[in-house]
Amino acid sequence: MFKFTTASKNLLVRSFSSSVSAQGAKVAVLGAAGGIGQPLSMLLKLNPLVGDLNLYDIANAPGVASDLSHINTSSTVRGFSTEEQGLSKALEGRDVVVIPAGVPRKPGMTRDDLFGMNAKIAMDLSIACAEVCPKASILIISNPVNSLLPLAAQVFKNKGVFDPKKMIGITTLDLVRASRFAFEKTGKVQFIPVIGGHAGTTIVPLYSQCSSLKLSPEDLAALVHRTQFGGDEVVQAKAGKGSATLSMAYAGARLVDSVVRASQGEDVVECGFVANDTYASEGVDYFAGILRLGKEGVSEILPLPENITQLEKDAIKAALPQLASAAKKGIDFVTNN
User: Fold this and answer.
1) Mean pLDDT throughout 95-116?
2) Annotated binding-site residue numbers for substrate
3) d(CA 165, CA 302)
4) pTM of the prediction?
5) Which parts of the sequence bind NAD(+) (predicted)?
6) Same domain, residue pair 319 and 255
């Protein structure tokens, strides 16, 4: 028979009281009933810094919200569907909007293959955000991020409300993978920056920043490849029945947490895909950099470390034309639609 111990009681009290003391960011998840959206929403419900959580999807978001509302943290959860202007209501008053909505990858598909299916969804959601909560931080998970972040930015530009500090494509999963894979080799927890983009060889992990990582050139190349194509590893392991939903939900929740903590005055460094003029001379206007987050979003795009290797420099150079092409694809979609 289960015995309700003093330790159990203390854990229960802590889980609730920590939320009571929070300032309570107002967050919306668009695509909350999906494979990423549900675990992401649960992680945000558990975050004591999130005080008010709105969940939106074309179906089942009210059910997900009802389920999460029984978790004994003090945050409020509401669900909205397409009925009765549900999207607009879900976005009202939001500080942060995180967007995992879209079709997931299947075996044999690249992230770019998803563009035709997810571009219209991303544009419709971006229009709603630009109209209802233009000052919110907009965090985009939906793939292909390399195209959909520029697409969303163009929507905001067309509406006259684009703030580059407030819009981030979530590449956090690449950083999480790189850091985890380095830990498996070294046994040390470290922050491994990942720059470039969020698709295949546009993903450039800077393993040079891990001083304890001693690998042969062949093993390092294999580690870089695993980081770039880690999503394929998961898709294949799930045998066509899903993609990297749980790890992506974790990565998305981590960036939301970082954005909220920074908005409250904490100095936070993450990586993310943003409007970035570092390689503007190469025709690249969007690039995943190392970001310092502040009260108003991205306060600074940090310069790349001086000691990156020639291999990493070559990888960046190879990624640039791919990034320029992907961004153009997203911008052209807005122009033509």
Assistant:
1) 85
2) 105, 111, 143, 177
3) 13
4) 0.92
5) 31-37, 57, 118, 141-143, 248
6) yes
